[in-house]
Amino acid sequence: MKDEKFRPFLDRLRQERELTDIRQPVDIRHIATLVDQSDQALFFHNVIGYDMPVVSGIIRTQKRAALGMGVTNYNEIEAKLEQGITKPIAPRYVESAPHKQVIQLGDDVDLFKLPVPMSSIYDGGPMITAGVVIAKDPEFGINSGMYRFMVQEKNLTGIDIVTPNNMRLFAQRAFEAGKPCPISISIGTHPYEIMGSGFRAPLGVDEMGIAGGLRGAPVELSTCETIDMPCIADAEIVLEAEILPTGWVYPEGRFGEFTRLMGGLHWNPLVRVKAITMRRDAIYYALHMPWENTWLAAPTRYTAIRRALKTAGVQCKDINVTLGGCAFWHAVISIKKQSGEGKNALLAALSVMDLKHVVVVDDDIDVWNAMDVEWAIATRVQGDRDVFIIPGARAKPLDPSLAVMPPGVVPTGAKVGIDATIGEGIPKERFERIAYAYADRAKIADYMGGKADAVPSTVNAGPKHIDAAAAKILTLIDKTPLYYQDVAAQLAEYDFQTVARALGKLHAEEKLWQDPRGRLCLRGSAFAAQAPAKRT
Description:
The chain contains 15 helices and 23 strands. It is an alpha+beta fold and 536 residues long. The chain has three domains: 6-286, Roll (Pnp Oxidase, Chain A); 294-429, UbiD C-terminal domain-like, CATH 3.40.1670; 444-522, Arc Repressor Mutant, subunit A. The strands form six sheets. It has a six-stranded antiparallel β-barrel with strand order 6-7-8-15-12-9. The chain has a five-stranded mixed sheet with strand order 17-18-19-21-20. It has a four-stranded mixed sheet with strand order 1-2-3-16, sandwiched between helices.
């Protein structure tokens, strides 16, 4: 997997029957809806009016994302990302690159020749969605990310950078200096580079180093022709461009977002494309929204949350960044709790990226089971004690619940934490779940197949046997309190009616009592529960 490139990855998807080749002529306007309907990635070989094929949907499922990361199961991606973060491998520059087989400069630059599909019916125009963008700042160095570009003219696009991040900071600093911000846009790269660029690393950290850590080998970079910038050597297509110092004043969008909603009109800078370099037989990759961004974005949240909890000294069992929260805004976290750590875990998790709502549960709750989580909220939460709201926190502009803000103003919103762990001072016995006796050996399939239980040696016994059973019960509960069912299990030589009658006899003789957990014990013993004091 170290040396796997974009095209061999497509071949592997074919081998796994995760990619279908469409060889008949297809109208580019139909591509997005066909990908949306397909349970496989699609490779369109004959796009009407274009000389270039289009592939889309290559990481649009958990399985395809796992294949892209070289792991067997999707849940293993988080550990691989952690490896990439903790053991980054610096990129390596190469002299020649396949994407330089065709070089278009000046008036030859024509974005309209690229088969950039439309997506949603309300989109403002065709959007370049799968470009790995590399930018450089004089002080902070290299930054990589993924942003979309709405094609407006043959050599002009917008760039969607309304969300506060390192790329926006680089563009803002260049704008304030009255200079363009040079960027390379690499289209058609392996998922390693897509995931590395999608991780929100601190300033000064090169995300291509993280991509190298994921790969286990350096990412190969080449140098652009018209700007002093690196680009991904294995890319199918590279756009060499500059973010113009226009400011956030040009309309861009709308666009179908990861929220599964149509985004609003954004105000963004313009991007001038100075050169296009590509392979002779280049393949255009269109990242499909929503979901194709989700399966590699979610693990970046898992890793960041786990790191925040570790810093807070909270032992985390499991994390679910939920699809209902668009894999960006909601997290359910189970912890091995010590006193007060439910709140500490919430504070730590809510500091991560753009998380908006976090639920923390005990380690007996399955974070992947929505009913289990809701049950924890229903049975363990008191609103005045366990729900808190943090107002005025940085918010993601794509949140449709936020008030409309003037162009260039970063919105703020509320973060909500729900501590659905068992509260301090509450007996754990209150949360003992129903468990049915003999579930380990009484299986319905066996009885449907004709199984019959053995008949006890004593059935419908008379007073003599009832007295004997009662005596045995007294001996048992004299040593330790037992649940009713445990008593019945230890008197297996009697049928249940005989056991029940023996216990009834002891109750009538006022010899029975219960301990605080509801187990049978002797009345007046050290185990016996004390009745609450009467009110005066």
